[in-house]
UniProtKB/TrEMBL annotation:
Residues 16-106 form the Mycothiol-dependent maleylpyruvate isomerase metal-binding domain. This is Maleylpyruvate isomerase family mycothiol-dependent enzyme. The lineage of its organism: Bacteria, Bacillati, Actinomycetota, Actinomycetes, Kitasatosporales. Pfam families: MDMPI_N. It comes from the Bacteria. It comes from Streptomyces polyasparticus. The keyword DNA-binding does not apply. InterPro entries: DinB/YfiT-like, Maleyloyr_isom, MDMPI_metal-binding. GO terms for molecular function: isomerase activity. Keywords: Isomerase.
Length: 151
């Protein structure tokens, strides 16, 4: 059995961008009821999870740490603050903000593969309650599984 080549950050970003774009496309025609659907993230709607994904695509280490300081190291509060910033005035604005972040390479102080994992996992947190099926590239799922296995 041959060992699979580990992906570099340069290899991972196109996978992140493709998964973000696929999620945006899956949500393009969602109605108000769909946006309000409870996601698989306890206490968060589909719209709120998408706003969370947008926030992680817009942060960098400096803005992430500034938010942590502002929230006095209360990470849940910091996540809620970032989510609120990205929600916008309604679902159309939430989706628009996410679409603007699809090709972003900004990230909190995490490896790029962590953003791929977040996009895959939260993508399912959104899609499953809506009954949307998505097929992921094996390369993306393998990279995520290897990353999580190391944790």
């Amino acid at each position: 059995m041959t060992e699979q080549k580990r992906l570099t950050s340069r290899d991972v970003w196109p996978l992140v961008h493709a998964e973000r774009a696929a999620l945006a496309e899956d949500l393009a025609d969602l109605d108000a009821e769909g946006w309000a659907t409870a996601s698989l993230c306890t206490g968060l709607s589909v719209r709120e999870v998408l706003a969370h994904l947008t926030a992680s695509a817009r942060l960098n280490p400096v803005t992430w740490f500034a938010g942590v300081l502002r929230c006095r190291f209360d990470f849940d509060r910091q996540v809620a603050m970032q989510l609120e910033r990205q929600l916008g005035s309604g679902p159309a604005e939430t989706l628009g903000r996410f679409r603007q972040a699809v090709t972003s390479t900004r990230k909190p102080p995490l490896p790029a593969v962590a953003l791929l994992g977040e996009t895959v996992v939260h993508g399912e947190d959104i899609r499953r309650p809506l009954g949307i099926r998505h097929t992921y590239p094996a390369e993306a799922l393998t990279a995520v599984a290897e990353y999580y296995a190391m944790r």
